[in-house]
Amino acid sequence: MKVKYFAWVRERVGKAEETIEPPATVRTVEELIAWLSGQSEAYAYAFEKPKVIRAAIDHAHVKSDAMIAGAREIAFFPPMTGG
Amino acid sequence: MTFPVTTCPVTIRIQQDDFDIAREIAVLTGSRTDIGAVVSFSGICRGDEDSAKIAALSLEHYPGMAEEEIRRHADEATSRWPLNGVTVIHRVGRFMPGQNIVLVLTASQHRQAAFQAAEFLMDYLKTNAPFWKKEESATGTGWVEAQTRDDEAAARWTRP
C-alpha cells in the first residue's frame, strides 16, 4: 500500500510518500503507526505522540482503530490548520 | 434566464494564483435573479500572531483529498441550507502578510442561509480540510498549531 506523509510528519519521516508491505498482523491504523515506529529513529520521532497524528484512508478521515485491509493509500498528518 | 430554486452550482478550486472576489461573485450569480444574498468570506495572511511578527506563511495541502473533503462539506452545506451557489477557493504556496489565502462564497435567496453556510464551511475548512500552515518569523520557522477554539467552532455544527 502507498503511504503519504504531510507537514511535520513528512519532515520527520524524511519522505513524502512510499510503498510499504506491513505484515498481516498489522490490521489497524494504530497498529500500523506502532509498526512504522519500530522501523527507524525517524519514524519513531514522527509518531512519538501517536494520539496527535491524524490519518486518512483513500482520502477520507479515519480513527485510529480503522482497519487498513484493502486500503490503496493511507496518509498520516498533524491536525489541520488551513482556512 | 431563470433557474429553478434547487440549482446550486458548487465550485471548488485549490490554486497558487490569487483570486478576484468581485469576479468570483459575478461568476456565481451570473444573470440569475433567484439569488437575494451572497456572503463572501476572505481569509488573509496576518502580519502578526500573538504579538510576534510574521514574515511569511507557507501552505501545504494533500492534493486529491483536499478537494474531496471540501466537496463533502459543500454538499453537506447545500443539504442543510437552501443555497443557490457555493464557491470555495483555497490558495497554496507562500504568502506575505496582506495576501489572500481563502475565499468562501455562499449564495441564497435570503441572507440567513448564506451567512450560516459560509460560517459552517469555514469552520470545517479550518479543522477538517487537509491543509497545513508554516510560519516564518524573526525567530525562525515553525508549523502552526491547531487551535482548540477552531475545534469548538466546528463542533457546534454537529447534528445529534
Describe the structure.
The complex is a heterodimer of chains A (83) and B (160). With 83 residues, chain A is of the alpha+beta class. In chain A, 27% of the residues lie in helices and 23% in strands. Chain A has a five-stranded mixed sheet with strand order 2-1-5-3-4. In chain A, strand 3 and strand 4 form a beta hairpin. Chain A is globular, with a radius of gyration of 12 Å. With 160 residues, chain B is an alpha+beta fold. Chain B is 32% helix and 36% strand. Chain B is built from four helices and nine strands, in the order βαβββαβββαββα. Chain B has helices at 21-29, 65-80, 111-128, 148-155; strands at residues 10-15, 37-44, 48-49, 52-61, 83-91, 93-95, 100-108, 131-137, 140-143. In chain B, the strands form two sheets. In chain B, strands 3, 4, 6, 8 and 9 form a five-stranded antiparallel sheet that branches. In chain B, a hairpin with a 2-residue loop joins strand 3 and strand 4. The radius of gyration of chain B is 16 Å and the shape is globular. The A-B interface holds A 4, 6-8, 56, 59-61, 75, 77-83 and B 43, 59-62, 64-66, 68-69, 90, 101-102, 122, 125-134, 143-146.
Short description:
Chain A has helices at 7-13, 29-37, 41-46, and strands spanning 2-5, 17-19, 54-57, 60-62, 73-77. Helices cover 27% and strands 23% of the residues of chain A.
